[in-house]
Amino acid sequence: MVRxxxxxxxxxxxxxxSVIATPPPSTTPTQPAAAATRLSTPTAxxxxxxxxxxxxKCVASQLQAVAAGTMATDFYVGAVFIAxxxxxxxxxxxxxxxxxxxGDGSPLDVMRASVTGGGTPTLVVVPLSQFVPDPGGFSGxxxxxxxxxxxxxxxxxxxSFRVTLPDGGGVIDGSFVDLAGKASRFGAxxxxxxxxxxxxxxxxxxxxxx
Length: 210
Fold this sequence. Notes:
Elements: H1 2-11, E1 19-22, E2 63-71, E3 76-84, E4 90-92, E5 97-101, E6 111-115, E7 124-126, E8 143-150, E9 160-164, E10 171-176, E11 199-202
Parallel strand pairs: 2-10, 6-11
Antiparallel strand pairs: 1-6, 2-3, 3-8, 4-7, 5-9, 8-11, 9-10
Protein backbone atom coordinates (compact mmCIF):
# COMPACT_ATOMS: atom_id res chain seq x y z
CA MET A 1 0.00 0.00 0.00
CA VAL A 2 2.93 2.32 0.55
CA ARG A 3 3.75 1.98 -3.16
CA UNK A 4 0.18 2.85 -4.06
CA UNK A 5 0.14 6.01 -1.94
CA UNK A 6 3.45 7.11 -3.41
CA UNK A 7 2.05 6.54 -6.91
CA UNK A 8 -0.94 8.73 -6.09
CA UNK A 9 1.36 11.50 -4.91
CA UNK A 10 3.03 11.44 -8.33
CA UNK A 11 -0.13 11.44 -10.45
CA UNK A 12 -1.60 14.32 -8.42
CA UNK A 13 0.81 16.61 -10.24
CA UNK A 14 -0.40 15.57 -13.70
CA UNK A 15 -2.96 16.93 -16.13
CA UNK A 16 -5.89 18.86 -14.56
CA UNK A 17 -9.43 17.48 -14.80
CA SER A 18 -12.89 18.64 -13.80
CA VAL A 19 -14.79 17.76 -10.65
CA ILE A 20 -18.39 17.91 -9.49
CA ALA A 21 -18.55 19.45 -6.02
CA THR A 22 -21.19 18.65 -3.40
CA PRO A 23 -21.62 20.87 -0.31
CA PRO A 24 -21.43 19.31 3.16
CA PRO A 25 -24.77 17.78 4.28
CA SER A 26 -25.54 20.52 6.79
CA THR A 27 -23.54 23.52 5.56
CA THR A 28 -23.19 25.77 2.52
CA PRO A 29 -19.63 26.67 1.49
CA THR A 30 -18.74 30.36 1.33
CA GLN A 31 -16.58 29.94 -1.77
CA PRO A 32 -16.77 27.65 -4.82
CA ALA A 33 -14.37 24.72 -5.01
CA ALA A 34 -12.43 26.25 -7.88
CA ALA A 35 -9.17 25.04 -6.41
CA ALA A 36 -10.37 21.47 -6.80
CA THR A 37 -10.18 21.77 -10.58
CA ARG A 38 -6.42 21.76 -10.27
CA LEU A 39 -6.48 18.16 -9.11
CA SER A 40 -5.72 15.37 -11.51
CA THR A 41 -7.10 11.94 -12.29
CA PRO A 42 -4.87 8.95 -11.56
CA THR A 43 -3.94 7.24 -14.80
CA ALA A 44 -6.32 4.34 -15.34
CA UNK A 45 -4.70 1.00 -16.02
CA UNK A 46 -6.04 -0.62 -19.17
CA UNK A 47 -7.54 -4.05 -18.66
CA UNK A 48 -5.50 -6.72 -20.48
CA UNK A 49 -8.71 -8.62 -21.33
CA UNK A 50 -12.26 -7.58 -22.29
CA UNK A 51 -14.53 -6.58 -19.44
CA UNK A 52 -16.06 -9.63 -17.75
CA UNK A 53 -19.72 -10.49 -18.15
CA UNK A 54 -22.05 -12.44 -15.92
CA UNK A 55 -20.71 -11.10 -12.61
CA UNK A 56 -23.11 -9.45 -10.19
CA LYS A 57 -22.71 -5.87 -9.03
CA CYS A 58 -21.21 -5.57 -5.55
CA VAL A 59 -23.58 -4.65 -2.74
CA ALA A 60 -22.61 -3.17 0.61
CA SER A 61 -23.57 -6.26 2.63
CA GLN A 62 -20.77 -8.32 1.04
CA LEU A 63 -18.02 -5.68 1.31
CA GLN A 64 -15.70 -4.32 3.96
CA ALA A 65 -14.07 -0.87 3.75
CA VAL A 66 -11.03 0.69 5.40
CA ALA A 67 -9.16 3.88 4.58
CA ALA A 68 -5.57 5.02 5.05
CA GLY A 69 -3.60 8.09 4.07
CA THR A 70 -0.51 10.21 4.47
CA MET A 71 0.46 13.88 4.22
CA ALA A 72 1.67 15.34 0.94
CA THR A 73 3.08 18.86 0.56
CA ASP A 74 -0.19 20.77 0.94
CA PHE A 75 -2.92 18.15 1.08
CA TYR A 76 -3.76 14.77 2.61
CA VAL A 77 -3.74 11.86 0.17
CA GLY A 78 -5.08 8.36 0.67
CA ALA A 79 -7.70 5.87 -0.42
CA VAL A 80 -10.67 3.78 0.55
CA PHE A 81 -9.81 0.09 0.21
CA ILE A 82 -12.55 -2.45 -0.49
CA ALA A 83 -12.46 -6.19 0.34
CA UNK A 84 -15.07 -8.74 -0.72
CA UNK A 85 -16.16 -10.96 2.17
CA UNK A 86 -19.09 -12.45 0.23
CA UNK A 87 -19.40 -15.82 -1.47
CA UNK A 88 -18.59 -14.82 -5.06
CA UNK A 89 -16.65 -12.18 -7.00
CA UNK A 90 -18.55 -9.00 -7.87
CA UNK A 91 -17.96 -5.74 -9.72
CA UNK A 92 -17.81 -2.02 -8.94
CA UNK A 93 -17.61 0.93 -11.33
CA UNK A 94 -17.60 4.69 -10.94
CA UNK A 95 -17.35 7.14 -8.04
CA UNK A 96 -18.36 6.22 -4.51
CA UNK A 97 -19.52 8.97 -2.16
CA UNK A 98 -17.37 9.31 0.96
CA UNK A 99 -18.38 11.07 4.18
CA UNK A 100 -15.83 11.71 6.93
CA UNK A 101 -17.50 11.35 10.33
CA UNK A 102 -16.74 12.80 13.76
CA GLY A 103 -16.88 10.76 16.95
CA ASP A 104 -20.58 11.50 17.44
CA GLY A 105 -21.40 10.27 13.93
CA SER A 106 -21.94 13.72 12.43
CA PRO A 107 -20.27 14.56 9.07
CA LEU A 108 -17.29 16.89 9.05
CA ASP A 109 -17.76 20.27 7.38
CA VAL A 110 -16.10 19.16 4.16
CA MET A 111 -17.19 19.75 0.57
CA ARG A 112 -17.16 16.52 -1.45
CA ALA A 113 -16.06 16.48 -5.07
CA SER A 114 -16.13 13.63 -7.61
CA VAL A 115 -13.81 13.40 -10.59
CA THR A 116 -15.51 13.53 -13.99
CA GLY A 117 -14.37 13.12 -17.57
CA GLY A 118 -11.92 10.69 -19.10
CA GLY A 119 -14.54 8.34 -20.57
CA THR A 120 -16.34 5.47 -18.90
CA PRO A 121 -14.80 4.44 -15.55
CA THR A 122 -13.10 1.05 -15.50
CA LEU A 123 -15.13 -1.96 -14.37
CA VAL A 124 -13.28 -3.47 -11.41
CA VAL A 125 -13.77 -7.12 -10.44
CA VAL A 126 -13.55 -7.49 -6.66
CA PRO A 127 -12.35 -11.03 -5.87
CA LEU A 128 -13.08 -12.93 -2.69
CA SER A 129 -10.62 -11.53 -0.17
CA GLN A 130 -10.07 -10.26 3.31
CA PHE A 131 -7.75 -7.64 4.74
CA VAL A 132 -4.52 -9.09 6.13
CA PRO A 133 -2.39 -6.74 8.28
CA ASP A 134 1.30 -6.84 7.43
CA PRO A 135 4.20 -4.58 8.47
CA GLY A 136 5.02 -4.17 4.77
CA GLY A 137 1.50 -2.98 3.89
CA PHE A 138 -1.72 -4.93 4.30
CA SER A 139 -3.08 -7.11 1.52
CA GLY A 140 -6.55 -8.31 0.53
CA UNK A 141 -7.94 -5.16 -1.13
CA UNK A 142 -9.97 -5.86 -4.26
CA UNK A 143 -10.66 -2.25 -5.25
CA UNK A 144 -9.50 1.22 -4.24
CA UNK A 145 -10.99 4.70 -4.46
CA UNK A 146 -8.26 7.36 -4.22
CA UNK A 147 -8.88 10.41 -2.02
CA UNK A 148 -7.33 13.88 -1.97
CA UNK A 149 -8.28 16.23 0.89
CA UNK A 150 -7.26 19.88 1.05
CA UNK A 151 -7.61 22.90 3.38
CA UNK A 152 -9.13 21.74 6.68
CA UNK A 153 -9.24 24.39 9.41
CA UNK A 154 -11.58 22.85 12.03
CA UNK A 155 -10.44 21.15 15.24
CA UNK A 156 -12.75 18.12 14.89
CA UNK A 157 -10.98 15.12 13.38
CA UNK A 158 -12.50 12.21 11.51
CA UNK A 159 -12.85 9.00 13.53
CA SER A 160 -14.68 6.92 10.90
CA PHE A 161 -16.20 7.25 7.44
CA ARG A 162 -19.18 6.16 5.35
CA VAL A 163 -19.08 5.00 1.73
CA THR A 164 -22.12 5.04 -0.55
CA LEU A 165 -21.56 2.73 -3.51
CA PRO A 166 -22.48 3.85 -7.04
CA ASP A 167 -25.70 2.67 -8.71
CA GLY A 168 -27.63 2.00 -5.53
CA GLY A 169 -25.15 -0.54 -4.14
CA GLY A 170 -25.76 0.53 -0.56
CA VAL A 171 -23.77 2.06 2.28
CA ILE A 172 -20.67 0.75 4.09
CA ASP A 173 -19.44 2.10 7.43
CA GLY A 174 -15.66 1.97 7.40
CA SER A 175 -12.74 2.38 9.78
CA PHE A 176 -9.29 3.93 9.47
CA VAL A 177 -6.04 1.97 9.44
CA ASP A 178 -2.36 2.78 9.21
CA LEU A 179 -0.06 1.70 6.38
CA ALA A 180 0.36 -1.73 8.01
CA GLY A 181 -3.40 -2.31 8.23
CA LYS A 182 -3.74 -1.77 11.98
CA ALA A 183 -6.48 0.43 13.47
CA SER A 184 -5.39 4.06 13.45
CA ARG A 185 -6.59 7.65 13.16
CA PHE A 186 -7.01 9.50 9.89
CA GLY A 187 -4.95 12.65 9.44
CA ALA A 188 -6.04 15.99 8.04
CA UNK A 189 -4.59 18.53 5.58
CA UNK A 190 -3.17 21.87 6.70
CA UNK A 191 -5.35 24.96 6.95
CA UNK A 192 -4.42 27.08 3.92
CA UNK A 193 -7.44 29.41 3.83
CA UNK A 194 -9.66 29.81 6.89
CA UNK A 195 -12.36 31.54 4.81
CA UNK A 196 -12.39 28.90 2.06
CA UNK A 197 -13.98 25.45 1.92
CA UNK A 198 -12.34 22.19 2.82
CA UNK A 199 -12.59 19.83 -0.16
CA UNK A 200 -12.40 16.04 -0.34
CA UNK A 201 -11.95 14.79 -3.91
CA UNK A 202 -12.96 11.16 -4.51
CA UNK A 203 -11.70 9.34 -7.62
CA UNK A 204 -13.46 6.41 -9.33
CA UNK A 205 -12.88 2.85 -8.19
CA UNK A 206 -9.81 1.20 -9.69
CA UNK A 207 -7.76 -1.95 -9.23
CA UNK A 208 -5.24 -1.70 -6.41
CA UNK A 209 -1.56 -1.49 -7.20
CA UNK A 210 -0.05 -4.91 -6.45
